[in-house]
Amino acid sequence: MKKPNSRKRENVSKSIIFSLVFLVLGFILSYSYSLSQSNDGGDNFAANSQFEKEVKFREELIEQQERNKTLREEMQSKQDVLQEFESEFSSGQENYSEIAAEAEKLRRYVGLMPVEGEGLKIILEDGEYGAQTVNPNDYIVHESHVFHVIHEMYISGAEAVAVNGQRIHSNSTIVCTGPVIEVDGVKYPAPFTIEAIGNPEVLAASMELPGGVLDQLVNDNIVVTMDEGLDITMPALLSES
């Protein structure tokens, strides 16, 4: 039969053993839970990191698509300009020919080039007046008469006009001093010969319009002679001949 003290010591030993067992078991459970939580956090972090990468790649893809769209629009614009340039270049020879023809026409008009061709010749002479005439100035050719004829010729399409062989240009001055007319500083006595290069039929018809220049000259007692269909040659303004 066991003694009371011996039984008591045995119970204490068992309690200590059970306490150690429970303590170890609790530590194991606690460590397992912590490890489980740590693994779950790592998985969540990995998932979040992958999502952020996908969002970033998606944004970069959208940005690249927008840039490609802008570049395509710029390329289309450049192609349109290139096509327009190629079209103009293909017709450039024809355009240059037209420009050259227009330039030559202008040079002829301002008198920088000699010119020849068919045209109309108009001669203005003083009217006959006697000693009993009240005012002899009413029977002589004035600069206004010459101006009227020159303007009519240009209006009718004349390419060039000359007075007594001297080319007329845009800045020409014509001054009447008695029976003499001064053209750009050069004096000419009557009669005054006005030559115009152009369509002779058109030039003559414009002069002969009812109430036109010819009728006004006749009313001012000016003797007018017209000769159309002539071959006329005029030197350039800078020519010495």
TrEMBL record:
<dbReference type="Pfam" id="PF05949">
    <property type="entry name" value="DUF881"/>
</dbReference>
<comment type="similarity">
    <text>Belongs to the UPF0749 family.</text>
</comment>
<feature type="transmembrane region" description="Helical">
    <location>
        <begin position="12"/>
        <end position="33"/>
    </location>
</feature>
<dbReference type="InterPro" id="IPR010273">
    <property type="entry name" value="DUF881"/>
</dbReference>
<protein>
    <submittedName>
        <fullName>DUF881 domain-containing protein</fullName>
    </submittedName>
</protein>
<feature type="coiled-coil region">
    <location>
        <begin position="48"/>
        <end position="88"/>
    </location>
</feature>
<keyword id="KW-0472">Membrane</keyword>
<keyword id="KW-0175">Coiled coil</keyword>
<keyword id="KW-1133">Transmembrane helix</keyword>
<keyword id="KW-0812">Transmembrane</keyword>
